[in-house]
Each structure stands twice: as structure tokens, then as C-alpha cells.
Amino acid sequence: MELFDVVDVIRVKRDGHALTKPQIDWVIDAYTRGAVKDEQMAALAMAIFLRGMNREEISQWTSAMIASGERMDFASLARPTADKHSTGGVGDKITLPLAPLVAVFDVAVPQLSGRGLGHTGGTLDKLESIPGWRASMSNEEIYSQLGEGCGAVICAAGAGLAPADKKLYALRDITSTVDCIPLIASSIMSKKIAEGTGSLVLDVKVGSGAFMKDIDQARELARTMVDLGADADVKTFAYLTDMSTPLGLTVGNALEVRESVEVLAGGGPADVVELTCTLARKMLEMSGKTDVDVEAALKDGRAMDVWREMIEAQGGEVDAELPIGTESHVVLAREDGVLQTLDALSVGVASWRLGAGRAVKEDPVQAGAGIEIHAKPGDPVKKGQPLLTLHTDDEWRIPRALESLEGGIVIGDSAPDAACVVLDEIG
Ligand code: URA
User: Fold this and answer.
1) Can you tell me the distance from the alpha carbon of 148 to that of 19, in angstroms, rounded to the nearest whole number?
2) Residue of 184, 205, 221 to mutate, ligand 1, most atoms within 8 A of C-beta
3) Does the predicted TM-score (pTM) go above 0.85?
4) What are the catalytic residues?
5) What is the pLDDT of residues 297-325, one digit of tens each?
6) Residue 224 beta carbon below 6 angstroms from any ligand 1 atom
7) 31 burial type by CB count under 10 A (0-12 exposed, 13-18 middle, 19+ buried)
């Protein structure tokens, strides 16, 4: 005998009323058990999309999703734990240098990640371009690497964490109910809270290559997630960062690993270094470490040492050559001037079409596919100068990638406004 009739629960939200705590707990549990069917949950998700949820409902929805699975607990570790989550962008490889950099200062980073879907890349896909590296780890291996090992783990989130979200996210993906702030916020935060981190820094991307195209929407998403963290006693802070143009000078799996290693070697593009250091400083500050020089740890090799240990602990051949697509194509500037726009979405879709991303979960990705960027907005360019190099294993993919770049590269007479990486912060 079920506690509620799902048709009544859907009607409450359809008519614009708030769901009660027992209704929310029941519907999430019943959906996870299969007693509420996909078509009923799809109707409820659409009602939530159209009618919204108030703060109490979002908080309860998140708690119910956490309660659908296991919750990790790192309180017994000798080190504090801190994590970051990015809402996803183009060329966003920050997790790779960030996790080892934070671990240098004796703060453990349990970074349980996902794979890419659509035009944004996934951290696990990137790391899998390192020969031998494996994404799956047991809970015991995670605890040991965080406690006695190098202190940083990047691995696949196990099936036990927030299983209700796994089911619901797949359903939202095929029912046009992904881009809904209460559902995005509860989805992200249920996984991060279940993961057991002590503090959490959110990187909420804003711009063409992000979920949130405008800054007001991004602020609302960030505020909602920071509040959910506070409700669950996880110290949470959010940065709003620019995703109108790709981060750094590479997009694609192995290419982004290569650039991350450059950052860990004390070099790398300025925007990637700035964002890595900003997020690292905040994660450390929230873990009680205020007097730290994160830039020095990149320059003197300490972060690189942790990276090597972290990759080797998961079977990765840290010195192996990284793959690169067998076919390439160079995109040239069509005129003299200043590069005004290099649109993040266009570049992200082009890289995806080259084979770096997947359309459905089961698709394979090409480790060596992607795009090298030779000029960024604000750079002067000459007609015939290389702007991008496209890489893929399949020549037939190149024309389709070029199509998505049409309109995404704009050369003009004057320089665009100087770009800031961090646009705002919410704590
Ligand atoms: N990422 C998630 O994990 N969930 C969402 O709903 C959107 C992005």
C-alpha cells in the first residue's frame, strides 16, 4: 500500500501549489523503487519546470535524493576535505590541475566526476586519454588515497550515490526538463552532499558555452546551491565565471590533459592558471588554510608531484605520449583586424563533432580529437594567420565541425572589452 497516489502529487504541482515534505520523500523513494513510472515522473518534472519550487521544497527534494542512496563520510580522515563542482563549459579542464594543487596543502580532494554529454567535456573522458588510467575505484581505495595516499582522487561516482538523481537526470534529458534551476540545483547538490565533502566551491559558468546564458539566471542558480549546501552543513561558496569563449587554448580530451600538465609545470594559459589558483585559494581558505601560496606550488613542482602520484595510483602511465587525431585541418583568419569573438558554444560543438564528445551515454569518445586555439578574443590577427587547428581520427568529421564554427569567429576593427574570468561571487 503506497502512502500517496502519484496522480494527486502531480496535480498539486500542476496547479501551482507547494509539495509537502512527506509527498516529496515519498515520490522520490517510489520513483527510485519503480513504483512511480517514468511517464508519471516526467509529468511531475514538467510541472516543476513550469511552476517552480520554493526553497523548502528544493531543500527537501535534495534531501530525498541524497537519502535514495549511500552517503560517504570523510570525517575520520586526518585531513579536511574540499571539492569543487563546475556546471560545465568548453575547455574547462580546471579539475585536473586543481585537485593535486589543493592536496599539496594537506586538504584532501574527493572529486567524484562524470562523463561529458553534449558539447561540454567530461573530466573522466579527459583522464582516460592517459594510457592505463582507470576511472573506477572502490570506496576503500578512495578512503586510502585520500587518507594515507597523495590526498587527491578523481574518479567515477559509484552507482550508490544519489541513484534517484541518476534516474531522474536521464529522464530530464529526454523530456526537455534539464534547464530548470530547482532541478539542476538539487541534482548537483544531492551528489556533492552525498559525496561527503566538508566544503564545496561551485564554478557556475555563464555565457554561450554554459547552461546559464545570462548572469541573473546564473546568480539564482548559484544562490540556490549555496543555500542547499548551508541547509546540509556543507560550507559552500560560488563563483560565476565567464564561458562566452573557451577556457585556455585547448578543447578535447588528450589536448586538455596536455594543457593541464603545462599548468602543473608552472606554465599554461593565463586564464586557466588564474581560475585554478582562485578556486584553490577558496577551497583552502574554507578548510582553514589561509596563509598559502598556491602559485608557488605550481612553479616549484609540488603540485606536479601530487599529480604524478594521483595518476599512477589509478594505473595511468604518467609519462606516456598522449594521443592526437590522425587528421588535422587549420582554420585561417579571413581578414586583418582584432579577434572579437571566439564563441564557446561554436567551438564546443565543433570539438564534439570532431569526436571529442558523445551524443548518447553509450557513445565512445576519441581521445585525440579536439581543437587547438591559436588566438583569443582581443588578439590582433592577420589575414591567413592560423586561428584554430582541428584534430580528429575521421576526415569526414571536419566539414561538419567547420559548419558549427560559421558565425562563431568574428574579426573586427576594435578590441572587445577586456575579459574577466571571474564575474561575480556568492557566499
Ligand atoms: N549537472 C547535473 O549533475 N545535474 C543537472 O541537472 C545539470 C547539470
Assistant:
1) 45
2) 184
3) yes
4) 85, 165, 172, 187, 191
5) 999 999 999 999 999 999 999 999 999 99
6) no
7) buried
